[in-house]
Amino acid sequence: VVAGGKVFYLDDQGGKETLHAISAGDARELWRATVDNALRDEQGPSGPRCTPLVDDDRVYAQSGMGELQCRSVANGHLLWRVNFTNDFGAVFFGEDTPVPGAAEHGYTASPVIADRRLIACVGGTNGAGVVCFEKHTGQVLWKSLNDRAAYAAPLVATLGRVEQVVCFTVEGLVGLALADGVLLWRVPLKTPYGRNCATPVVVGDWVVAGSYQAGLMAFKVAAEGPGLVARRAWVNKNLAMNFSSPVGVGTHLFGLGPNRQLVCADIETGRIAWSQGGYFTTSSGTAHAAFLVMGDNILVCTDGGEVVLLAADPAACRELGRAQVCGPTWCNPAYAGGRLYLRDGLKTTGTLYCLELLPEGK
To answer: How far apart (Å, rounded) are the C-alpha atoms in residues 341 and 5?
Structure first.
């Protein structure tokens, strides 16, 4: 993540999840700080799973094992910390849990900030499924639900004219009042492996979410009596998405669907506008892509290390340019000031890149 002329990232240094701050201009390291022991699972390398979060003069880092730290942007000094297991009784995913798949891969959902609140999917089954902290002090402002944490990041949105936190937990999709964490609506959505990975997309009063097992579905949130209700408008199993989060542009959704196909779909109807293959050449049945919305275009970073610029056009898949920029990667890049920051390395030590994006021929 890039902020204030600095690049912040997490990696594994000698078995420790480590937060780095480097100069965005020349990669000069400004400081580094140890966050936690590195998470290990059966798929992929050991190390962190979350993107750091920067807000003003503070940077927040969440480890794969549920250590959440707030540090100074200037020098990396620790300002406050909490641990989801020790402080909230959460069952760490790496230990015995009734959800077999989600037990392996740890905390992957970066927190979200709204005003003075920082909201994290803690996963405590004793009333601390979702916890809201005062971002400067770490004081708990509210706790809500008994839901176990899945992999999708929480987000803040206004639905049915109510500002709320939308979370995709192991138990399903929920909306919580931002002010006090009161449950506003719930849609049960459980899968055998608890792999609710892709972060939901909110457009207007629509929430789109799903998994590779349940398919993709859309819900319309509206006022009903004194509260809110979320009604399912459609479900499309031909749009099932695994762990690449889609993006919304206008009334259409763009993402990575089954069979390694890039897809575009109408958010209000679920109708597939187009589906296009040829961007993923790996032999693995699992593909990954990161999507960055850039005005009327979408930059796609494939797991093969290629970046592709597409028009955000529901009429057809229109490619505007592509380039091979790095090796295999599952990391989400950052774009700031005309430069793209990304890294590669699935099984070995990777490389951090800064690329300038220019029109063809320049």
So the answer is: 12
